[in-house]
Amino acid sequence: MSSRQALAKKAAVSLFDQLIKVVATGIWALVLGSVAFALDVVREPFIEAWQTVRETPAQLDRMESKIDRNRDDINALQVPRSIFQLSELLTTVQGADACVEQRPCTINTKLRRYASALNCHYLPGSAKYGFIDPQRDEPIYLQRVGPLTGERDFGIVWEPISFSFMTPEGLSPAAEFFAEGDYVDCPGMREGDRPITSRSNPIRIPIDRD
Predict the structure, then answer these.
(1) Where is pLDDT greater, at 89 or 3?
(2) Residue 86 CA from chain centroid, whole number
(3) Given 11, 60, 181, 182, which residue has the most CB atoms within 10 angstroms?
(4) What pTM does this model have?
(5) Distance between CA atoms of 85 and 127, rounded to whole angstroms?
(6) For residue 192, what pLDDT is reported?
(7) From CA 55, how far away is CA 73, in angstroms rounded?
(8) What is the per-residue pLDDT across 84-130, written as a single tens digit (0 to 9) for each?
(9) Residue 75 pLDDT > 50, yes or no?
(10) 3-class secondary structure for the chain?
(11) pLDDT tens digits for range 143-169
(12) Is 50 exceeded by the pLDDT of residue 73?
C-alpha cells in the first residue's frame, strides 16, 4: 500500500469516527431531550398528586366535621316536639263541678304517649303543671297539693292520672291547664344530652271564684 493510500484510509477512519461521535451525540441529546420532556409532562401531575396526598387528611377532617354537623341536624329533627297529651273529654274535677280560687283542687284525667315518643323515658319527680292564661305573659305554675299519683312512663293508650293543686286567684275564663315533664333517651337524642321538657296540650278546666 502506498503512502497516499495509507493517508486516505487514515482520513476515512478519522471521518468515520467523527461521524459516529456526531451521531452518538445527537442520539444522546435526543434521549436526554425525550427524558426531560417526559419528566416535564409528569412533573405537574405528580406535584398536584403530592399536594392532594398532603391535603387529604385535612380534607377528611373537614368532611368528618361536616358529616357530624349534618348528623346533629338530622338527629335534632328526629327529637319529638310533643311526647304526651291529656284528654279534655275525659277530664273531671274530683267531687265538684269546678275548681275554686284559692282552694285545693284535684282533677282526674287521662294521659297517653304519642307513638313517635314511645321510647322516651320520663324522669320521676320532674312533673310540673299549671295554667296558660292569655292575659299573662308567662305560664302560671301551680303549688302541688299531696303526691302526684300515677307518675310513670305511659303507653299509647289512655291511662288515668290525677293532679292536685292549689287553685290560683285571678285566672281569666280562657285560662287552660297543662302538664309537663322531663324526658331522656328520646329518638334523636345522644348519650349525655340534657333532658328535654315536654308540655302537654292545654285543656279547659272550669274555675269558680270564691
Answers:
(1) 89
(2) 30
(3) 181
(4) 0.63
(5) 14
(6) 86
(7) 27
(8) 999 999 999 999 999 999 999 999 999 999 999 999 999 998 999 99
(9) no
(10) CCHHHHHHHHHHHHHHHHHHHHHHHHHHHHHHHHHHHHHHHHHHHHHHHHHHHHHHHHHHHHHHHHHHHHHHHHHHHHCCCCCEEECCCCCEECCCCCEECCCEEEEEEEEEECHHHCCCEECCCCCEEEEECCCCCCCEECCECCCCECCCCCCCCCEEEEEEEECCCCCCCCCEEEEEEEEECCCCCCCCCCCEEEECCCEECCEECC
(11) 999 877 777 899 999 999 999 999 999
(12) no
Distance (Å, whole) CA 106 – CA 126: 19
Instruction: Choose among 175, 183, 180: nearest CA to 204.
Output: 175
Q: Pick the more confident residue, 19 or 204.
A: 204
Distance CA 70, CA 129 (A): 35
The strand pairing partners of 48, in sequence order, are: none
Q: Length of the chain, please?
A: 210
207: left (phi over 0), alpha (psi -120 to 50) or beta: beta
What are 76's three cell numbers?
A: 335534632
Query: Is the Cβ–Cβ distance between 105 and 144 less than 8 Å?
Result: no
